[in-house]
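Two quick folds needed for the group meeting slides. Do the first one here.
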Amino acid sequence: MTARHDLPSVGTLVHAADLHLGAPLNSLGTKVGEAQAQELRALAVQAFDRLVDLTLAQQADILVLAGDLYDQADYEVGAQVRFVSAMRRLVEAGVRVFIAYGNHDPLVSTFRPAATLPAEVTVFAADRPQVHTVALRSGHSVDVAGVSFGKQHESANLARRFHQLATNPRRTIGVLHTNVGSNDQHGDYAPCTVADLEVAPVGYWALGHIHDRTIQSLGAGRWWAYPGNLQGRSTKATECGPKGALVVPILADGFGEPRFHASDTVRFARSDVDASTADNLGDTLDLIVTQLAELEEQADGRSLVARLRLTGSSAAHHALTTQADLLHLAREQNTTGVLISTIEVATRPRVDRDQVLARDNLQSDIVRALDGVDNPSDRLLGLLDGQISGLADARLRKQLEADPSLANALLTRVETLLIDLLEDPS
């Protein structure tokens, strides 16, 4: 990244996206208990309040919201009322707010607002980017250009429509909901490339849609960035870790490096627990509690929901794979404030591979057969040819091309599962 910390700012921009207001965290009810889920939902709503507080504390000139403010296109009424009230608070403090809607909340004609936004809040129309000039408190000015989705399944490359703008890239903020590089972890809405962003006369691209925070330089004083979503929603990988917004210094001739500020009130985590030192179930439960305590220390005082995966070659493997109420037992032993949503058992039996090879049985034959695979990627794809859908096949091929070691890891896992299946637990 090209940082410009030595240059004084002439204004401040706060960039947030993917607020998903009205999202009820439905999946929590079945994973942590309904009473606890209700408490977490009440806390999660406060993440938006923290964004407003951050914007005011930073004395920001501009707040941009890059899509998916709401979780559904009907814009849940309670969320609307809270949102409009917060917008009034911001504009009264002199903050200009710009909104581009995305795939979760496209601008559709059937929408009937439950509350009226202040006139100082600009909602970008669909189809073509519109440009608004904003006078900063310092006396400088910037242009803010943006476009909303007019339908949920927007397939057009909207970034290219910014190319024709007659704006100064050093003084222009672009607001867009888009999938840069066709990230396969998210829907391919309004897809574009980094080259599309670079060519446009935009100095800071305030993007939304991808829930993983991304900050990339386009050269001195120019950036494109995803702040990630405002509040995590589950233990899916892209929902874990700190969530919040970006604070961007506006310079006299460009933009400074965006700085992340957490706003989440509930945090989600995925964590591996190495059970290789566990001799029995009790040892494993102790290791789980120790890991939860470490996660709690890293949560910055937030409520934390964790998904755990037990790994390693362990003497407790058989007990773990046959313990039907493992999650219940772990929750009973848990002395921390962390809530456990799921425990996945991915341990291996403590079996010496060389000893397996020395045997004259099916296990040893399997290990030798797998050892004889010359090209793991080709072998794996050959085994699966015609057995999985075209989409799954294409995604697997793409992942194997990006990380050839994945094939070895998958075949090793197959070997482990087969050895475990055929091992006599006695």
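Then this one, please, same format:
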Amino acid sequence: MRKTIFVVDDKDTNLSMAKDALKEQYQVMTMPSAERMFALIEKVTPDLILLDINMPEMDGFEALCRLKTNALHVNIPVIFLTGMTDASVEVSGFQLGVVDFIAKPFSAPVLLNRVKTHLELDEMIRERTTQLQQRTEQLQQRTEQLQYRTEQLQHLQNDLVFVLADMVENRDRRTGGHVERTAAYLEILLRTMREGGVYADEISEIDMDLLISSARLHDVGKISISDTILNKPGKLTEEEFKAMMTHTTEGVRIIDQIISRTGEAAFLLYAKLFTGYHHEHWDGKGYPKGLAGTDIPIQGRIMAIVDVYDALISERPYKDPYSHDEAVKIIMENAGTQFDPFIADVFYEVRDLFKEIAAKFLDN
């Protein structure tokens, strides 16, 4: 199909010369004014416009501005026909979006060559634009697919966390609600630490949602502890307590097994740090490795406080629950020995929020 060229000039001689030069290869439509061009362009969309600059009523610059402000016509290539030699005219034209200038009087070969060149260039640009749009759409589709798969994976990860955590709580009848309460405490503590810049280097890159979700697995190693010890109504013997202590290393072993089978190391890394280190003490007298100070991963140092707080305020067969104030006092008295003193200070700052969380879960 032949391409359509508009030739707009107030001189009949120029219109005839242009038509004669182009009519063998293109459909040429001539018009004596910009007003006539705008009347016709509503019905016929040209592939290129040859536009005279000096015309009465509406000159080429005004017509070009009008074309470029219309979304339907903005991409039509326009070549100015002019007898002017002033460089400022060319600068203004190019700034407004004209693609070329052809000096009048023009020769047929020059006109034909320029028109052919710009039509080919325009077609190439349109093809590249179409390809770019197609690639953008494909990328968008792949992004949406990846997002969907990521969401599905997140759902599966969350399901795994809840199933394992639920298994632990169903076996340990003494700690109902402990998993969800500690996750809620942990979120308050972590967000306050981040806002206050406490251990900023260690927590700035942490994925908060993933961390809080994985905290529910901190006691997953209790799956390996016998029911006799796990649900003993009285205080544990020394031998039983040693067996109970193994829930940290057993938890790490279980998580390592899951990682080796699923390959989801990033997802379970936080959980591994929680379960392996939440019974380490700041002074190095905890277990299982006897680490001290900041050698203990921050997940373990944070969980140590929320885990003990919840244990203190909870009723056990061998003890009555401590009050909130008593639990706070015990934790602060052990800051710097059992607990990280800087995290303990943050805990003290948000202690009332801990109390609210505990009360809410108790009401539920």
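Slide caption for protein two: The two ends are 75 Å apart (CA to CA).
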